[in-house]
Every structure is written in C-alpha cells, then in structure tokens.
Amino acid sequence: MTLLTGSALPFALGIATVMASPALAAQDLQDRPVTPPPSEGAAPTDPDQVRFSAEQLEYDIDADIVTATGEVRMIREGERLRADKVTWNRKTGKVLATGNIAVTNPQGDIAYGDQIELTDSLKDGVVDNMLVVLEQGGRLAAERGTRQQDGTVNLERAAYTPCAVETSEGCPKEPSWKITAVRVTYRPDRERVYFNGAKLNLFGLPTIPLPRLSAPVGPGGDSGFLTPDIRLDRVNGVEVAVPYYWRLAPNKGLTVTPHVFTAVLPMMQAQYEELNTLGAFRITGYATASRRSDDLNTLNPTDTSQAFRGYLDAVGRYQFSPEWSLSGSMRITTDRTFLRRYDISRDDRLRTTASLEHIDANSYFALTGWYVETLRVNDPQGQQPIALPELDYRRRFDDGLLGGKFEMQLNTLAISRTAGQDTQRAFASLRWDLRRLTNWGQEVTFTAYGRADAYNANNIATTPLVYQGLAGFQGRGIGALAVDVKWPFVGELWGGSQRFTPRVQIVASPQIRNIEIPNEDARAVDLEDSNLFALNRFPGYDRFEDSTRITYGAQWALTLPGFTFDTIVGQSFRLNDRPTILYPGTGLSDRWSDIVGRTELRFRDFVSLTHRFRLDKDSFAVRRNEIDATIGSRTTYVQAGYLRLDRNIFTSIEDLQDREELRLAGRVQFARFWSAFGSTVIDLTDRAEDALSLSNGFDPIRHRLGVQYEDDCLRLGFTWRRDYVNTGDARAGNSFLLTLAFTNLGR
C-alpha cells in the first residue's frame, strides 16, 4: 500500500543534520543487521508531502491513530526511511518509528536506530540507540539524540571514529581510536561539533582526557590545532611543535607553528597557502635567534653570539590559459647550517626561480630567471650565478620538401655574480631531422644543425682558466651533419619476445671555437648511456664537440610474462686526430672512447634493478659503477644504491671527485599493521680514491631506524636517527622523533 500525506518527514528533520557531521560515532560502532532503504522510487513533488508504503496500514478512528507495519518505506525530498512499524497519534501529535530503522539522506549518509520519536511540529524529536554511517567516512552514534527547534542536535553518551570496525574478513573489531563524550552538541549555524567530557580512546583504552573539544563539519577544514610533533636531539634538546590553523576563507589558510626547545630559544614557523581559479601558491617562513658557527672547516667550531636565523620557502603556479603559465619558487636562508641544525632540509644548494611560459603544439617560449644560494663548505657565495633573464624560444615546422622537420631556437642568457665573472650569451640555431624506414626495416635519421653565437664576458680572472674564455665580445659559428641508423631484429624466445637493435651513428663537425668562449653550462661532462648517441655530448650550449666520429652500439631487450630485461652497450671512435677539448677522466679524451652501458631488469612489481657502467677502453678498469635495486613488495622491501667513480679528474676542472658510496633502505612488515624500517648512507671512499678525503673507507654519514603502526585511520611511529658529520653548529649526534596522526582529527 502506498500513500501520500501532507506531513513532513520526521526522521529526515530529526537526523539529517546529525548525519552531516564528520566527527562523531556511536557507543555501539558495529554495523546493524538492517538493509538501508533502496534508492529507487520517486519522491513526491510537493515538499510537504510524504510518500510511504507498507505491507499493512491501519487507522483507529476512535483513537485517531494511523499505524503502518511490515517493511515500511517513507520518502520525502530524497530522505528515505525503512522501519518495521510507524505509528502516528494525531491527537497527541506523536510520531513513532520502531524496529530495524535505517535512514538515508541525499548525501548518502545512513542512520540506524531502535526508535525515533517526534512531536507534531516535526522539527524536534528523540532517537534511541542511534548509529550514523557517513558517506565521507566515519561513523557516529549515541544512546540518545535530540533535535531542537533551531536545528541544534544534542547527543548523550556518544562516540565517534573514522576507523574501520571490521577486519578484511568481515569480522567485527575494535577501532584503533575513537572519541567518547558525555555530551556532544552539533551547531549547524556554526558548522561545528562540540564535545564535553571527552576522552580519546587508543586501542580500546582511554588514554588522553579532552574535557572540551570541537571539530568542523563537512569536507572543508576549520580553524584549530593540528597534530603536534615531538622530537629530541643533541643540539636543540626536546622539541615540541603544536601547529594552529586559521581558515581565512574556503580557498586560503594560515598555519602558525611555535617550536619550543629545552636547549635553545623557540622558533616560529608560519605557512600561508591560497588557491584560486588561476592557480595556487604557498609560502613558508621560519624565524629564531641562536648561536651559529661561521667557521665550517673546524671539527670543534666556536659559536658566534646570538644571531637572527631564518628561512623562506615559497612555490606557486598560475595557468592563465591553456598555453600561458607563470611559475616560481623561492628558497632563501640566513646561513649555511640553519636548515640542517633544525632538521628542515639537507640540500646543499638553494635555488630561487621564476618562469613565464607559453606552450602549444609546435612552439615553446620561456622567460626565466634564477638565483642560487650555496650551503657548501668552501664554496664562496660571490661565485654563485644570478641569471636574469634567460629567454628561450623554439618553433617546429615542416620542411615542405622532403618530409623532414625543422626546429628553430632563439636563446639569450645574462649571468652575473657579486664577486665573479659576468657572462652574456645569445644564439640562433636551426636543426633539420628526416626520419625514414627502409624496405629492410632500418630506421635512418638524417640531421643537419647550424648555430650562430655571440658572447660577452667580464671579470674573468676569478674563474678557472679552462672555463673563463676570453674577455669582451666573442662570436662563433657551429655546424654539424649526422646520420643515425638503427636496425631492429624481433623474434620469439622462451615464450616471449626479444628485440636486438644494432645502432651506428656518424657525426661530422668542423673545428669550432670553444676555448675562447666562456663556459657556464657545459662543465660537468661524463660519457654515459644517455648521451652516447647525442649530437653534442656536452650537457649545455657553451661547448660543442667538434670532431668527426662514429658511434656504435647495440641494445637487446627480452620481454616475458611479468619479466623484462633491457641492456645497451656502446663506444665511439674519433675519425680525425684533431686535438680535443674533452679532458681526461670524461671517457672521451682519446680517439677511442671508454665503453659505456646500462642494464635494466624488472620482475613484476617485486624486483627492479638498474646498472650503469663505464669501462676504461685500455685496461677495462671500472671508471663508473652505479647500481640501484629494489626487491620486495610494497610492505616489505629492500632498496640498495651503490656508486663508485674512478675518473681521475683534476680538481681544477671539476669539483666532483672520485667517490664510493653505499645507500641502503628497507622496511619489514612483521604484523598486519606493524613494520620496522631503516636507512643509511655510508662513505666508502678511501685515500687511494681521493687523497683529500677524510674517510677511512667505511664512514657512515647518517642512519635511521624506526618502528611504525599504521592502519586506515592511525599512524604511530618512533624513529631514531644519527648524524655522523659536523658542519658548523649542525652537530653530529642522535635525534628521536615521535609521530602520532589521527584521521579526521588535527587537520
């Protein structure tokens, strides 16, 4: 039987506002054995009408009572109720729903209860043994809930959790944490839920009393305290950081974090972030006063007097149209050890950039500038480049004759230094590529390249001779021709496929002015698999390889179900005996180059291995040996990285000297939610590899060990970290970190 009545829906007005809260739960948080009302069935068009159906409908004329029993369904404006029995006493105005009650609202929240009672105003009422499962996650319930005329909802002896209450096998379990309270009040006018007499229950035990607590309602955040951090280290002592978030608007907010230490003065941290229709930006600042060490070379440095110390970190991007965008970042600090001492960052250089870009299908334009701040020992700040501006424009178009592609590039760059060389550069280039496939399956690519450069350099005396070039204005022309042939062979092997691809490339270029030109962006050159077949094996524009050479190599790839193997090896030979500007140690200084290669192996998501190498062409000594490997699953794995450089490059040419380093990391899940983790970096360099090295062949740089519990709504961890290197007032020693984070709480 289906009826329409002019009464408003009691359960919707009495419960829907409670269901909007993401910060409550029920004393009995387990699922109820009740099927929610189905979503099919149209609601009445009149908002004051209720459509309901039942197996049986009775009306007592004398008592003026309407009783619906057996699978009662009620629908009003998207609100749906299911109950075993609904009774309406028209004389007293009392409406009562009982038995296996389930209610859904248009947002998808589901409320369960044993009994719902309302007055005939249908705006205030009482719910017994209530459970609400929120569509956005989390659940709330109470022994009793009441709703007042103004929409305020009061819950008695209530609890809330966002955690799962069932195991993956569907068995009931206690949530990792919940909040229980004597009284919970929801104020829709303030969009907040208030707890009175609350306790935070962790793993079923009441651990933290929270006499008064409030939380925002809905998906957006609100002002309030966030999850604190607790840390202990040798230099600063015990650190307690308690962030507070101000919600300035739905699209902007400010987080202020005081860091209080037992051994030094407090530090203030502030972060402002904003999002609008064009883009977003974030700016973070730190400020404190402490003693710092200006002498970074002394093992036991003396501290200076108290000094202001701080750091600014900002990043932003705005997209004005599908083609135009503006992006930038800023990283500036007061001194070289502040970031390490306060465990903010371990970067050894900070870069501030800004870039205006236009990108479409066939062109690219960028107006860019950057500033570099060094944090390295013995690296003078006055020698760091300031690029303002760099202009780069590229356009690609068809040749209109042979089917090839032209790429035109215009570039200009101005670099200045406060105590060093100033360089200005401009060039225009044109590159033509034609790719063809022969009848035998060879892939042949013809390339022609031409470029005209103009340079100006001043104050060159502060730059190493090999990089400074000549002072004043200099010009240069560059030209190169190349042909590149690949011949892939594909076949079956071991139930999979294999591909063997020999490759030969010939590049011809006349003698080019290189030494007379200042070198700003092509200093770190090293032969490897990524640049073996490059037209110019220098990394930047300021140097161009002026030789006629043949490069040859081969690539073999094997693909099996769940398994891939890919390896490449190659070498080059200079066809002329013209003196080269490639210095010893790069692998390219002689006519025959060193042998380079790369091997990659993957087995499903369990094994990933990459090996890069460079072998001396004469002695087959390993000049570069680099291994990166990951073995394991997402929960239990081992990561290893090894690097050894044996290049014998002069320190006056390149500051990266021979090194040997080992990096290890791993995680072991020893229980369903428990895991142990660790990582370390070890310097394996000895005096035989680097005469200036202080390492004895096995010097740990830092390590980290910890244990962590993490489930769907709680993360609890303890980490021990030790640093072995002193850098000014960033001293070696131990630090300990305690992390505790709750889903939907402190965010």
Automatic annotation (TrEMBL):
Boundaries of every LptD C-terminal domain copy: 308-674
Pfam families, alphabetized: LptD
Annotated keywords: Cell outer membrane, Membrane, Signal
GO biological process terms on file: Gram-negative-bacterium-type cell outer membrane assembly; lipopolysaccharide transport
GO CC list: cell outer membrane; transporter complex
Residue intervals passing through the bilayer: none
This protein's name: LPS-assembly protein LptD
Gene: lptD
